[in-house]
Amino acid sequence: VSKILIFLILISMTFSSIMAFDITSFESIDNWIVLQDNATWIGWTNHSGFPVCQTRANLPYPMKRISNIIEDIENYPNVFKRITTAKKLDDNIAYLMLDMPFPFSGRDYIIQFVKDKSETDWVFSFKAVIHVDTPPNERFVRLINASGTWLIKPISNSETAVTYTWNGELLGDFPSWALPKAWKTQGNEIIEWLGEALNE
């Protein structure tokens, strides 16, 4: 009986979510504080006690090419340069490690992701979970509330509107006064690196 109980606990730990917060319904979020308003729009707002950030841009590529890059998680280190490790733990669960500027510790997180495609858009959303194969690493700050959503909508056959919304919480020793600058940098990097990958 005890072995069965232990097994059930481990299974529960593997797939249990550690957060109630997610931003899959981000389109209802308003009151954005604008950090940048040009070809790449970036803003943030406080939502359910978390700093929710968003970056938007129109890219001159078809929706399918963009979605292929976003859903290829294990190739993220070759696209998004701050991601040093990205590996799938299960079909819809992945582990990622982020490099941070000196002197801050790196960040890591485990996410469960969902893809949803319709005739008018493509959505890739994720939120943090616990997985028994990746216990906390003392060299990294675990982002236990990680959450995000990619929304891509075709403007034409060769142009696509891309919106990425994420929980900007960095935890650890990152100073709160520096967060808006970090969010702006991240928003620009995401669009820039995605564009570079599409241009290859």
UniProtKB/TrEMBL annotation:
Gene3D superfamilies: 3.30.530.20. Pfam families: START. The lineage of its organism: unclassified sequences, metagenomes, ecological metagenomes. GO terms for molecular function: lipid binding. This is START domain-containing protein. It comes from marine metagenome. Residues 44-200 form the START domain.
